[in-house]
Design a protein that fits this description.
98 residues, two-stranded antiparallel sheet, 6 strands, alpha+beta, Alpha-Beta Plaits, four-stranded antiparallel β-sheet
Length: 98
């Protein structure tokens, strides 16, 4: 099985939807490896943050066309996982320092 660092690429913090899910529904959003399964994502989050995961939803985010000089290039597709935690639990990594 792949390591936690290989499965969980980065948290997604900056979008309004991710902030709303975190505040209202106790759901946290991550960029994950394209070949990671829901079971692997669940195990990686539980191992990395010592929390109980209730559900995992995944989606493939399509790459965008970007200008490169006179031509166009396409960014790579990536996978997003929305993880629901047990009530009362949270991931301190996502808490702001304001």
């Amino acid at each position: 099985m792949a390591s936690v660092a290989q499965i969980l690429r980065r948290p997604i913090l900056l979008t309004e939807k991710a902030a709303s899910l975190k505040d209202n529904l106790n759901q946290f959003t991550f960029e994950v490896a394209r070949d990671a399964t829901k079971f692997q994502i669940r195990a990686a989050v539980e191992a990395a943050f010592s929390v109980d995961v209730l559900s995992v939803r995944t989606q493939i985010v399509r790459g965008k066309d970007r200008r490169m000089g006179r031509g166009y290039a396409r960014t790579q597709n990536w996978k997003k996982a929305i993880v629901t935690l047990k009530e009362g639990q949270k991931i301190d990594f996502f808490e702001s320092t304001n």
